[in-house]
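Need residues for this backbone.
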């Protein structure tokens, strides 16, 4: 059915219409009646504009996996399953950048001129704002010389610069990230926290912050040369949170969570795990990084060393108070009862980062999902984590998990999607039941074999329908991957999109980190030296048919 465009209405032409009607004698309302009519009319307009504005509201992807819960869910009405099956690369999008990429790109609207931007950051310490339509460079900034692998211990990255996914605070339009730099060719290493104006690339006043010069905890100082910043950054209550782990467990590192108020960067607070005589470890390294319920930051920690059986902050899911401050209350952390065995086996639970999930109908319904190298999934009560204790539920879900997970709810169930095998990748989704207590149930799995599998993300047309779980076919320990996008039905795992043709081939994606983002009918994926854009086909408007004239009978002449 053809739509009818509404006539523009203003207070002036509404009054004119009333006057004309009065002049024609249609009606002559009294003054009180006119006031009532005006009130009713403006009420109708208010309802109309409230209904229309959301359709043109801004779309922004300001952080890893789109939301502070780290769910990885993107709602875009054009991503029906039938449309997604015909996804193609947008060849008009350039996206050329310089440097290897492990950080997820971001998408920002609302700046001067109204141009939407893709933000990308590289290991060469280059930061870019690209035009989201054509991929041309709006601005770029290099923030310092990255550190060559030869000047680091055990790193897999060469060079090491910006690794963790940045974050944008929309209120101040500031972009935050950590960059590892060397001012003297590799001898000195620094972790610097930057804040840039997201619209211009200019460094904001009071930044950068030298982490080694400002962060300490219980007499232990941060040592930049042995710490890696892989986890995604978070902002909670106006405080920037940055997690740090190790470089392949070499050196006597610690897990660090550093907090910097974004409006007072000189005031730095830090917490560290693995503190005590001869103790080290407990890195915060999962790519999902810092999650939040809107009030508190959550982090997971890895294995610790030389603890002598005394828990020292490792193998944990921790809810921090603002700062970060660790309360020590059992309600604010969870540790598996076999944590020491996991320590000794290097089978830590910190490989994914915390995933915050709400399951309506479950008791408790506010959950944290923990996943890691021990091959298990754990369900925890987010409101009362429980200290060193059994989880609400646990289940063996597959192999070593070292990527971020995603979560979504369909008409049938709540799911968690994750790569569940380190080699010969398997992409799978398990269900969380809406029961008391909730349990982990089987869902679906897809064997990717040599195709590879990065960190998943999810699209839906409205939050529960047309759900598609997406992965990039990344390289891994054994294979280069197929370097293509793949989409699967969120309830069954059936193939929706299987990589496309020659134009859809990418390069330089990485299995620890690579994931996509979704905005305005596009998927954006950042690989080494390039950001790729994919688009669902835009339907052509249905042409309006010309009505067929009805034959009119000739009136019979009157006698």
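Answer:
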């Amino acid at each position: 059915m053809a739509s009818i465009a509404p006539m523009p209405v203003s207070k002036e032409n509404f009054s004119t219409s009333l006057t004309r009607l009065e002049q024609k004698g249609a009606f002559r309302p009294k003054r009180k009646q006119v006031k009532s009519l005006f009130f009713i009319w403006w009420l109708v307009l208010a309802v109309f504009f409230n209904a229309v504005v959301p359709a043109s509201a801004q779309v922004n992807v300001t952080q890893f996996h789109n939301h502070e819960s780290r769910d990885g869910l993107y709602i875009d009405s054009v991503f029906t399953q039938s449309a997604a099956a015909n996804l193609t690369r947008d060849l008009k999008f350039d996206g050329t950048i310089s440097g290897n990429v492990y950080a997820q790109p971001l998408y920002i609207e609302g700046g001067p001129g109204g141009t939407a931007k893709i933000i990308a950051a590289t290991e060469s310490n280059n930061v870019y704002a690209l035009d989201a339509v054509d991929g041309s460079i709006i601005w770029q900034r290099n923030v310092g010389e990255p550190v060559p692998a030869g000047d680091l211990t055990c790193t897999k990255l060469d060079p090491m610069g910006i690794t963790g996914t940045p974050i944008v605070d929309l209120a101040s339009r500031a972009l935050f990230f950590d960059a590892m730099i060397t001012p003297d060719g590799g001898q000195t290493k620094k972790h610097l926290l930057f804040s840039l104006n997201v619209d211009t690339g200019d460094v904001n006043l009071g930044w950068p912050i030298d982490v080694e010069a400002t962060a300490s905890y219980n007499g232990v100082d941060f040592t930049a040369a042995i710490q890696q910043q892989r986890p995604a950054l978070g902002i909670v209550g106006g405080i920037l949170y940055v997690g740090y782990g190790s470089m392949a467990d070499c050196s006597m590192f610690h897990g660090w969570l550093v907090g910097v108020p974004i409006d007072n960067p000189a005031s730095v607070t830090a917490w560290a795990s693995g503190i005590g005589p001869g103790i080290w470890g407990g890195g915060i390294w999962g790519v999902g990084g810092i999650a939040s319920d809107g009030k508190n930051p959550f982090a997971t920690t890895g294995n610790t060393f030389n603890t002598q059986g005394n828990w020292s902050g490792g193998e944990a899911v921790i809810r921090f108070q603002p700062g970060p401050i660790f309360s020590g209350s059992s309600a604010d952390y969870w540790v598996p009862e076999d944590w020491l065995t996991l320590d000794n086996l290097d089978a830590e639970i910190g490989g994914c980062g915390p995933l915050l999930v709400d399951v309506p109908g479950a008791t408790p319904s506010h959950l944290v999902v923990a996943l890691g190298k021990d091959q298990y999934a754990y369900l925890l009560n987010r409101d009362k984590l429980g200290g060193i204790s059994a989880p609400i539920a646990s289940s063996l879900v597959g192999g070593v998990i070292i990527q971020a997970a995603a979560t979504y709810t369909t008409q049938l169930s709540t799911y968690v999607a994750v790569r569940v095998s380190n080699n010969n990748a398997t992409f799978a989704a398990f269900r969380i039941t809406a029961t008391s207590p909730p349990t982990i149930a089987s869902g679906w799995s897809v064997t990717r074999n040599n195709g590879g599998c990065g960190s998943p993300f999810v699209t839906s047309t409205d939050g529960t329908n047309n759900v598609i779980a997406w992965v990039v076919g990344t390289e891994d320990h054994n294979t280069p991957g197929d370097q293509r996008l793949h989409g699967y039905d969120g309830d069954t795992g059936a193939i929706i999109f299987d990589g496309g043709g020659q134009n859809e081939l990418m390069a330089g994606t990485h299995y620890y980190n690579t994931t996509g983002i979704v905005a305005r009918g596009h998927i954006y994926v950042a690989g080494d030296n390039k950001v790729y854009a994919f688009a669902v086909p835009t339907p052509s408007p249905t042409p309006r048919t010309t009505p067929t004239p009805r034959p009119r009978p000739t009136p019979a002449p009157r006698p």
